[in-house]
Amino acid sequence: MYMADNHIPKSWCLVRLGDFVENEKGKKPKNQQEKRDERYCYPYVDIEAFEDNVIKSYADGINCRFCSTDDFLMVWDGSRSGLVGKGIDGALGSTLIRINFPGIHNDYAYYFLQSKYLQINSRAKGSGTPHVDPDLLWNYSFPIPPLNEQHRIVAKIEELFSELDKGVESLKKAREQLKVYRQALLKHAFEGKLTEDWRKKNADKLETADQLLDRIKHEREARYQQQLEEWKSAVEQWEKDGKVGKRPSKQGKPKHLKSIGKDIQQTLPNLPDGWVWGKLGLMTTGVEYGSSTKSKKTGSHPVLRMGNIQNGKFDWSDLVYTSNEEEIRRYLLKKGDVLFNRTNSPELVGKTATYTESRPAVFAGYLIRINQINSIALSQYLNLFLNSHVAKQYGNIVKTDGVNQSNINGEKLINYPFPYCSTLEQKKILEILDEKLSVIDVFLDNIEENIARSEALRQSILKKAFSGQLVPQDPNDEPASVLLERIAREKAEVAVTAKKGRGPKKIIKQKAYEHL
């Protein structure tokens, strides 16, 4: 049955998507192995194969469902649910479905579902692992033009997308070049090369390496004594208030930190006179894990989590809250605090940000507050170093890898190598970096805006394509209604064949085997 719609050309028809789609969900094979041989000859098409064309295992065909290059695939389960891509010959993974539209130009249907991805993904079902909502997907109104026009639409989409892809590729290349330049700047900054001329002009104001280490030792001891006095005052106040709430915890004595090992020292760049490589823990009397209390959608104070750290800064767009007074007292952030993300995916663990807001907030358990002593290391100097190649490289060495997650705990963090220099020189380094990095950030923002515009233009092209506005109609084309009548007859013939013991599924499976 066709649906009425005044917004499509007269030669088109509007149908329910599920009435024309052929689909089959994948299934995990009974037998798999990493190497391909005569028996295990079917590539296992999982999400990694689907997205990156990386085949990691092969099946022997037992307990398999197959897909081919004649199909296109959709992610059915997981955070990417609704994402579609071109088909691959192989055994179909359990989180994917294969889709085919017999009688319809398959690429036309593929682009139609591509235009629906954001809606399908945002309306996924399931409290645990999300999955595509079949009621949403199969009930879409599917506009079908004449077959010749389907081919013209697909050709035009691919022509326009090709131009867009070239532009986006250039933008992404420029983005990567800027990131490389940014890392080169940080490398020069923390090797003392950016301030080489400045040091020559200010040699009389700078400490020797021995003087620097001696001062760091005394500053650290002074901070510990200060914290001890603050603790005593807090305990007195706690007792004065009638011992309400949890007793203030005492700050432990700073740990003795051994020198950086020779194996690590050999991997570090040389530093100029007056600088010294030391462990990060020398700048603090201790690091602190964030709150483990469950946050809520409302409350008096926002709780910053690992997702709120983006590109070295805090993103305030997705917040949870707490009103727990004890948690607020203990984990309230101070201006200049540097937070380190201790648990995340392997490529994101170790990301940092400096808290510069006047807005009060606390921090969550997957974050570590470094509590640096500002007379030893300025917060932004520390933050930028932890985002440099040297720090990331060391983090990759010491991180503990789990299933899709890595961890760098507080003990490993205080043992990071850190390039110490005078705070006077740190200020000069930050002054130079601020000027240069701000220019890079402007360029990067412009690139991201243009990439976003490209995606918006891509969606605009798809919208025009499926409303009959992308290519002109040809009055000589066979109308879609005739095409749909022919498809209906072919389906009826298949149904008759199925009754004789050779159903569509058997035909499909044989076809898949022949492809392989």
Describe this structure in words.
With 516 residues, this protein is of the alpha+beta class. The protein has 15 helices and 25 strands. The strands form eight sheets. It has a five-stranded mixed beta sheet. It has a four-stranded antiparallel beta sheet with strand order 2-10-7-8. Strand 23 (400-401) and strand 24 form a beta hairpin. Helix 5 (147-189) packs antiparallel against helix 13 (423-465). Residues 504-516 have low confidence and may be disordered.
Structure in a nutshell:
The chain is α+β, with helices and mostly antiparallel strands.
Which descriptors apply to this entry?
516 residues; 5-stranded mixed sheet; 4-stranded antiparallel sheet; elongated; alpha+beta
Query: What percent of residues adopt helix (DSSP H or I)?
Result: 40-55%
Which ranges are low-confidence, i.e. pLDDT below 50, for 5 or more consecutive residues? 504-516
Spatially, the strands of the biggest sheet line up as: 3-5-4-9-6
What portion of residues belong to β-strands?
5-15%
SS element count, helices: 15
Which term fits the overall shape? Answer: elongated
Radius of gyration of CA atoms, rounded to a whole number: 31 Å
Cα separation of the termini: 37 Å
Largest sheet, described in full? Answer: 5 strands, mixed
**Derived structural class:** alpha+beta
